[in-house]
């Protein structure tokens, strides 16, 4: 059996590698002309108690001329490997800041959350170029929140603390994304200048089963003076359970999928829960 299996393995590996190479090639081409191939969608973050939108998270989309939409879960890891993630991330930062400015100009008070890849965070000029993009767009730094993952904290701890402090002293706020899926210890968390934990959607999916963990994360965050957002809230039931746990900041399909900037302007005209 061994030989057959290994042949099967090799064949599927080959297909996988070819697909990957192809995607790399396409990605490189698309990034040469970023404005035409990528766009941002926005998902609201809701304060359920107040029944209002607290802000939006910017999420990247790649519109391939033949394949159609390609999910960031597929192309971001590849962009990270290739190093092209930095060009993409800079574009996201500029585009999101410009959109925020445009909303501000229309009298829409809004805050925006931007995902920061670990590789971008590592760049020596990350803080500078982020501040520059915000300044350039003419938006309030306090209306911009950066979402980083726990991996950033565990690998580059001292460097990370310096950078986060610098960002915070300039008015930005910081959230830990996908919280609960990494390995950051309590002592690390306590040292970090973090404003908000976003509980990973895997815990919300099985909220019945993971209720204790979620309750623990919420009470820990509260003790550390951090806000908590629950991600991936899809049902009324989950929404209610989270409120019972004293978590009222939520994001998820129950309120809205990620939508375009124009759709968001419509969305904002009504209270999120009617
Ligand atoms: P994330 O930052 O954890 O974003 C949340 C993901 O969950 C988004 O997927 C969103 O569309 C999806 N989602 C939101 N609500 C629900 C829900 O109720 N149920 C379910 N099943 N899913 C929900 P998306 O847009 O495909 O993005 C996937 C990941 O790609 C993001 O995860 C983030 O890590 C990364 N990403 C997206 N945009 C950017 C970007 O501009 N820069 C970087 N560095 N990463 C990005
Ligand atoms: Ca995120
Ligand atoms: Ca997340
Ligand atoms: Ca994620």
TrEMBL record:
It comes from the Bacteria. Residues 20-272 form the EAL domain. This is EAL domain-containing protein. The lineage of its organism: Bacteria, Bacillati, Bacillota, Bacilli, Bacillales. The chain holds residues 355 to 628 of 631 of the full protein.
